[in-house]
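Local shape tokens

___
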Amino acid sequence: MENVPFYDSQVGEFSFSFVANTLTTSFVNKAQVVGDSIMIEDVIVETDTTGLAGATLFQVKKSDTIGNPIVFSQAVANLGASATYDLSTATIKNRSVCAAGTYIGILGTASAGTGAGVARVTIRYRRLYENSSLQPAV
């Protein structure tokens, strides 16, 4: 019998990248929950060989007001060259249920980002209903 890899249709993934000097102190929408609710199970932040600079904290937040809106938070000083953090290693880490229409976004605290470093953010989520997903924010 052939080994067949397990595929869970309820699990989804959404990724985006940004340059450090585009990070602002205002919430910037990157994704939106469509269809119905999802549960964010992990957030992975990876930096290139330059990394992030400028802001005090890098945060991934949700726009709804149920529960803690901060899903992921890590000191920018720790997101320098070739860094990787996820919900098991971040300073603030909250698995979170997000209803349809919720935006997921990013921001820096205290000051804007600086430099040309690039970060990739990957959000792994579980669909709570068959028609749920994360899509690019409009």
The first strand starts at residue 11 and ends at 19. The chain has no helices and eleven strands. The radius of gyration is 15 Å. The mean pLDDT is 93.
